From TrEMBL:
PANTHER family: PEPTIDOGLYCAN D,D-TRANSPEPTIDASE (PTHR30627), PEPTIDOGLYCAN D,D-TRANSPEPTIDASE FTSI (PTHR30627:SF1). Belongs to the transpeptidase family. This is Cell division protein FtsI (Penicillin-binding protein 3). It comes from Nocardioides ginsengisegetis. Residues 278-300 are annotated as: Disordered. The chain crosses the membrane at residues 21-43.
């Protein structure tokens, strides 16, 4: 028989893991520690610096992208583009994906896009960023080619976005007026003056990304761009092109330093052409010297020479001091205080009418006539013609010229100013002054913008704001026109080469000593010019041509006169202006 075993006492439950109270205490301690950590973190996030931590969290998965506005076009008077925008792209990078290949990618992009290697490398390695601009305003074909080649090389993290490229379809035509854009800002001309209007306002997009890709249903906020507004100018693109070509040939043939030419609508004051030479191609301004990138016609000042006689003698006629037939005895030399005044041509005593003084361009005859002015009277007339103040056509950097203050005038000052020395003008300013005679004695302010526009400086300009005021009487302007016709007479005048076959033309030559920049004194060089209008008895256009420092020995009549004739002839034909078929002036030149 089996011997029975007595039952063994059972071990209490839980004795292996400790008492229940101990386990509970330990659990509470762990929970309390975890909650303390979470609580501290919550206080830190919400109480101490909530904004920075929220921004950090958002930056991990959000991208902000600019949406460029379409820049407004700059148009000529007929709606032809002088500056417009064509398809282009910006190349962008996601540094989160480009950091590992940054050196190789930077070298690749530098070779393809000519961007700076070190700044590109920095962008490709930008810590914490998900969006960096690599290049702006890249032509569409180039941008897509670069992106395709980059992917072929195995580079990741590059992409393209819409970014219109500025284009100047006519190249150098009106470039001195239109200006150009830099990488991120306008640098010259109307592009800079009216940037706020042209640029519009960029928009923006904000969206979530994950793994380098946009999350389709993630956060997305878009502010649409406000497109720029077009700027309509008074420039005639075809006439501007022709004027520039004539001016270039004239300066080169004369071996001059530079030149300017202005074509102005007599009645409206609209500037149909404002040409400079040398100029530049607005599509590649970096290829031209800095000195050629501005507008000489508004910023450069010079002494106008004998064209000034038109203003002096018409003012005398208006004041009732002389007429176109006033007789003057003109000696070969005129002693005035400590210096003598000479004419450009040697002569003994000659007897000239006032018309002869203009036809022969006599400095001495002009000074003798100007002696009839009251003190300060010539100054007042010249201010009324617009000298000594800006034309305010809307060009940054326009010079007001130099008209000495009335209180500083001496007899010698008036003598020199009377025939165009000791004062300075810009080309647009002088064209507007001569146009006053063409317009029957009424000055009309020149305009470069059609309608109305506001510069970035807050100045309102344009044809809607044209100003007029009478400077001399219609009678005085008419007499001056008849006198100016004699300048082109093949026998008595000094500029027969400025004639336009079939049309009556009134004009005036100018030759003036030039002030050297280095010495601030007359340096032995000269500037020559010709200003005039046609048809003389029913003016439609005023044209003014200036050539600086011609080295072929020519003067205003032989250098600038033929250029005037070509430009005026083209303008008259282009606008179908018929000849008046009236008889030109035959005012006596001598007595």
């Amino acid at each position: 028989m089996r011997q029975s075993r007595s039952p063994q006492p059972r071990r209490p439950r839980g004795s292996r893991r400790g008492a229940p109270q101990l386990r509970l205490r330990f659990g509470f301690i762990v929970i309390a520690m975890v909650l303390s950590v979470f609580g501290a973190r919550l206080v830190q996030l919400q109480g101490i610096d909530p904004n920075s931590y929220a921004a950090m969290a958002a930056a991990e998965g959000l991208v902000n992208v600019d949406l460029p506005a379409q820049r407004g076009d700059i148009l000529d008077r007929n709606g032809e583009p002088l500056a417009d925008s064509v398809a282009g792209y910006m190349l962008v990078a996601d540094p989160h994906m480009t950091t590992d290949q940054a050196p190789e990618m930077a070298k690749f992009l530098t070779n393809r896009l000519h961007v700076d290697y070190f700044s590109t490398l920095k962008k490709l390695r930008a810590e914490g960023s998900r969006f960096e601009y690599i290049a702006r305003r890249v032509p569409a074909t180039l941008a897509t080619d670069v992106l395709t080649a980059a992917r072929h090389e195995g580079f990741e993290g590059l992409d393209i976005r819409r970014d219109p490229v500025r284009d100047y379809p006519a190249g150098d035509v009106a470039a001195n007026i239109i200006g150009f854009l830099g990488t991120d800002e306008p640098l010259a001309g109307l592009e800079r003056t009216f940037n706020a209007q042209l640029a519009g306002k960029d928009g923006s997009a904000r969206y979530e990304v994950g793994g380098g890709n946009r999350i389709p249903l993630g956060e997305s906020t878009i502010t649409a761009p406000v497109e720029g507004r077009d700027l309509h100018t008074t420039i005639d693109r075809d006439l501007q092109w022709y004027t520039q070509r004539v001016l270039r040939q004239t300066v080169e043939d004369a071996r001059g330093d530079s030149g300017m030419a202005v074509v102005m609508d007599t009645l409206t004051g609209e500037l149909l052409s404002v040409a400079d030479y040398p100029t530049f191609d607005a599509n590649s301004p970096q290829e031209s010297p800095k000195a050629d990138l501005g507008s000489r016609s508004t910023s450069d000042v010079y002494e106008p020479g004998s064209v000034e006689k038109v203003l002096t003698l018409s003012s005398l006629i208006d004041a009732g001091k002389v007429t176109d037939r006033t007789r003057l005895k003109v000696p070969g030399e005129l002693d005035r205080e400590d210096r003598a005044i000479h004419d450009w041509f040697p002569h003994d005593l000659i007897r000239l009418t006032l018309a002869g003084v203009i036809a022969k361009s006599s400095n001495i005859g002009t000074v003798l006539a100007a002696d009839k002015f009251r003190t300060g009277q010539l100054y007042d007339y010249l201010r009324s013609f617009g000298l000594g103040e800006r034309t305010d056509v809307g060009m940054r950097g326009e010079s007001p010229g130099i008209l000495p203050a009335k209180a500083l005038w001496t007899h010698q000052t008036q003598d020199r100013i009377a025939f165009g020395q000791s004062l300075s003008v810009n080309a647009v300013q002088m064209a507007a002054a001569v146009n006053t005679i063409a317009n029957g004695g009424v000055r009309v302010s020149p305009s470069l913008v059609r309608g109305s526009a506001t510069t970035d400086d807050g100045q309102v300009v344009g044809t809607d704001h044209t100003r007029t005021h009478r400077v001399v009487s219609e009678r005085a302007a008419h007499q001056m026109m008849l006198m100016m016709e004699r300048v082109l007479d093949p026998e008595d005048g000094v500029a027969p080469g400025a004639a336009v076959p079939g049309y009556r033309v009134a004009g005036k030559t100018g030759t003036a000593q030039a002030v050297g920049e280095a010495c601030g004194c007359y340096d032995g060089t000269f500037n020559v010019s010709f200003a005039g209008f046609a048809p003389a008895d029913k003016p439609r256009f005023t044209v003014y041509v200036v050539v600086k420092n011609p080295r072929n020995g020519g003067g205003g009549g032989s250098v600038a006169g033929p250029a005037f004739a070509k430009i005026m002839s083209y303008a008259l034909r282009r606008y179908a202006v018929p000849p008046t078929e009236t008889t030109p002036s035959h005012l006596p030149v001598e007595w």
